Amino acid sequence: LPVEGGWGWIVCAGTFIVNFIVFGIHNSFGVVYVNLLDELKLGKAETAWIGAMAMGLNFLCGPLTSILCTRYSCQATAFIGALLSVLGLFLTSFVQEPPKMYLTYGLLFGVGSSLSFVSSIVILGEYFQKRLALVNGIATSGSGVGSLVTGPVMNYLLANIGWQNCMRVLSGFAMLLWIAAFLFKPNKRRVSTRPSKDAGKLVDLSIWRNKAYVTWVITVALFQFGYLFPFVHLIKYAEELGISKSKGAWLIGFLSITSTIGRVLFGRLCDFQRVNRITVYQLSVFAIGVSTILCPLASNYGGLIAYAVTFGFFDGCFVGQVAVITADIVGHEKLSQGVGNMFGFIAIPMSFGPPVAGWLYDAFGSYDLSFYLSG
Fold this sequence. Notes:
By secondary structure, this protein is an all-alpha fold.
């Protein structure tokens, strides 16, 4: 059985670092998005594809990452992910055309971040079981803290040194992923207790015969279509209401603060045996949907802050508990396959959400329909 503590807490710290860097950059793409629109005079849809492709591949490569984790180790997989992430961000600083950015930022950084992120989630299951909900909440809160820090920092860098030098700074920042990967030592006790019939079984398609798992994956995928909308378009929406870029960037900061709080609180709540994690998750997703539908009613900065705070708090439940609920459904011994396959499936609607919102804006000159559809 997994060791409930010990080196596992160091692994938890490593997962926190990965989430801090990976989602700090992904979730702050909206800051870069506004600058690319203004400086390079690109269309909203084609620009949104850059960030959406990277985030989509971050999840689409989940099955590949789970296979690599099973065949080699989470540590080796995370090392490769760090290399691709650093390379992708650095090369992006030298290109200006969207097709090339799709390759450097979308493909290289997207795949690299997936190898780092998914392996960091899978490794937690090797060290924790009883306290996995709380530990996962603490570890994934790194993405909230990362978004809180990275958004304003990127906004400062963009204003003072330009987006290309900003990308070079981010590539140096991403080198910390190597430190995190070093912490992901395989739990030999956990590996040695795996049933022999599963040894060497890289692709377990039997998981798709689990009706509860299939239903779970479909519901998460439907939610993901509108999930990235505020991360990509909220700052631009705020700017069109007359709110400055710097204040708009803080909306992602407010979202990140409450998301961090939500991950820890929901993680602790969902550790109680009497609490139904799926019910808590359903209520959280419902709250996110309602707040997104109502967001167009907000006509000032205070209203947008209220939306960001609400979205962020309940987003903490989704991010912190999605892997834990998956483990409840498929079992801890199949966590790697369960998480990897689910992330790969949900990447498709996730990737299309932001570009569709951009197309709707270009067609109707307003973000209102995008809010309604996303909600």
